[in-house]
Amino acid sequence: MSAQILDGKALAQRLKDALKVEVADLSKKTGAAPRLVNIMVGEEHGACAYARSQRLAADYIGIRYELTTLPRDTSQEELIGRIRRFNADEDVNGIMIHKPLPERIHYGIVANFVDTNKDLEGINVANIGKMILGDTRIIPCTPAAVMEHIRATGIGLRGKEAVIVGHSHIVGKPLSLLLLEEYATVTVCHVATSEAGRLREHVGRADILIVAVGRPALIPGGWIKKGAVVIDVGINRQGETIVGDVDFEGARKRAAFLTPVPGGVGPVTVVMLMRNGIEAYKMQMSTRGDRIV
Ligand code: NDP
User: Fold this and answer.
1) What is the 174 CA–ligand 1 centroid distance (Å)?
2) If exposure means fewest CB atoms within 10 Å of the residue's CB, which of 65, 99, 108, 194 is most exposed?
3) Mean per-residue pLDDT for 165-182?
4) Which fold has domain 141-266?
5) Domain ranges of the chain
6) pTM for this structure?
7) Could you report the per-residue pLDDT of 220-256, keeping only the tens digit for each?
8) Which residue, by CA, sits nearest to atom 8 of ligand 1?
């Protein structure tokens, strides 16, 4: 068996094409395209590369996108002040705070000042709470990208064994809720699962395996159940190359579907940010009385 490789760039393109049509339709109805702002404190090379890919995606879809760069010595209070101004501005529909931030600014604190209905990254505590209640209109982007990859396989999740390795706030935990919403039977593994020597056992019964840890070759190909869907979220730099958390060549021989790293989850993540922006826009328009949703 040789796994079908899930091409993230091709999937991202299909999703962008659909969003472009939606934005054109919305803009016609409301007279303006969604406007999203990304607030960056200081400039950092990696962060700028991500911002560039956001701009490219936004331009393609027809979304207005702005990068606001604040000086490196901006205080937490000044940043919160800026967020409040964007919250109050009716012509700003989505806000995100770019990471990394200078050490004195606490991301977990400032990100929660973003208006829940403008929370581009879906990481606001209120939006995370809404996920528990099954409201998944604005959700964290990486778990959303994982779900799109699974959807692209055409395999239904109902009754399937879904195993997530990694329980971070931004990937593993929210993803477990999204999978549960689709009636998968969900197992979440973490460092203590490995310490207990039980990671292999859980991985081995996964129909759907998602790995988000940040350790190259954590999952040997031989552990994977034949015919599984394997989504590798990990990004690990090894010299000039980037690899995931799954032994790609080994997994290829056993899985039915497999995401590559790079070129798997990453390209879809930025499109999910745009989709959140569009959902945010629709929610704001409907609360203002425009019947567009
Ligand atoms: P975190 O470091 O926040 O979380 C890693 C998780 O892996 C933790 O839950 C940790 O458990 C767990 N873990 C650590 N060691 C082991 C082990 N030996 N066995 C099982 N679980 C273990 O990382 P993120 O969630 O932010 O990111 C994970 C990976 O995904 C990284 O490589 C990151 O670069 C990548 N990533 C990719 C994105 C994309 O768009 N493609 C977006 C976001 C992240 P514990 O906390 O208990 O130690």
Assistant:
1) 13
2) 108
3) 98
4) Rossmann fold (3.40.50)
5) 31-117, 141-266
6) 0.97
7) 999 999 999 999 999 999 999 999 999 999 999 999 9
8) 166
